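Known limitations

Structure tokens in this collection are predictions and should be treated as such. Users comparing against experimental data should check residue numbering before alignment. To illustrate the layout, the record for Gliding motility lipoprotein GldK is reproduced below. The input appears on top and the generated tokens appear beneath it.
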Amino acid sequence: MKKVFSVLALVSFLASCGGGDKGQLVGVKGKQWHAEKPYGMTLVPGGSFIMGKSDDDVAGLNNAPTKTVTVRSFYMDETEITNSEYREFVHWVRDSIIRQRLAEEAELAGGGGGGQGGKTASIADFAFKGSANANNKKGGQAQETPYQQYSKHYDPNNQRLNWDVDIIWKTDEYPDESYVYVMDEMYLPQDQSYNGERLMDVTKFKYSYKTMDMDAAARSRGDRSNFIQTEEVEVYPDTTVWIRDFSYSYNEPMHNDYFWHAAYDEYPVVGVSWKQAKAFCDWRTLKHNAYRKEKGLHNVNTYRLPIESEWEYAARGGIESATYPWGGPYAKDDRGCFLANFKPLRGDYAADQALYTVEAKSFEPNDFNLYNMAGNVAEWVNSSYSDDSYDYYSSMNPNVNDKNNKRKVVRGGSWKDVAYFLQVSSRDYEYADSARSYIGFRTVQDYLGNDLDLNQPPR
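Generated tokens:
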């Protein structure tokens, strides 16, 4: 019997190795990977540069001494994230919360859904996919996942939101009382609305996601669950910043229209805190990978905020010791035209043809094809602010992001700043939970592969 077993084992081993490798070590082949430039991004090839002030720090801050550092290659948004792009995030969160509440109410109501082709018969059409009340039954029984009883990760509820049925927004088309109850929860009370408008309660637009302090987890060598936490962030921009940032100043039109009106679709989003920008990055990764999963493709790397050294390297556009993204040392070209949107001429905001912000793709891009790396809106980066951080930075991908330091670096200057803050080496900060009418952000994504490949001719 042992002899028979040995023969079978040998045959099985030979069969498993019969893939044409001739007994050689060829490695395990994963999914085929092709680098794909994300839409709206540009590739910033890695390299070294002199980080910090190339001349005297005229503000006397003494917080940016020069230091030669190297950063790896990455993709970066060509423009600041616009109102239109951020609004997509807000709408997704809003719709997810509404569908979640509708599904929960449908579970209480019971019964199967009857909506077909986008038509809704009752709230039951919004039941969770995978639940007993959803339209996923076969032969009158809810379908089970094969071998589900063996998996410790199997969720018996398998509650997935149903995106196949359109949300009904018109009150005279609500299908039943349960639907009315859920939708009424999402709007402000009547005594908080005015001008005959029915306004949604945007404080309910909350995005939840998990983060892990990878640096702390790697250094502790302990249970990584101790370093994972759930973040919940209100995602709607703080539109009141247009009023609160400026005392005794009439900016109500910007408060009322800037984020939601189509006229400002291509303008950079503002009123977004560092925490909200981080949540947006997580959602953008989720959105992209959800599509790729449906197509059976490999996941993309995460979208994130740039670290401070990446931002400065990208802003310089390959020009060593430049004062501004276009070189410098002046903020005007040879025709006397301003090269960015800022506060020139001792406070003449409109001298550069813009009183507030301008469209994200305005002025000339730098040599990395990045727009408005100086002026328009300052930008959040994924680094904590410290006066002496340059003194203990690593020279490779230098970054300091202390979770206990709530002061986060902002770079690039804005429409309301003087030229000093437009310099590629100037540093400023704001608190992570604060939002301003002059701070926005753009995202980056790590380039996967050898940086040397970027310099090779195509094959």
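For this record: Confidence is low (pLDDT under 50) at residues 7-16, 112-118, 134-142, 455-459. DSSP finds nine helices and 14 strands in the chain. Please report discrepancies through the issue tracker.
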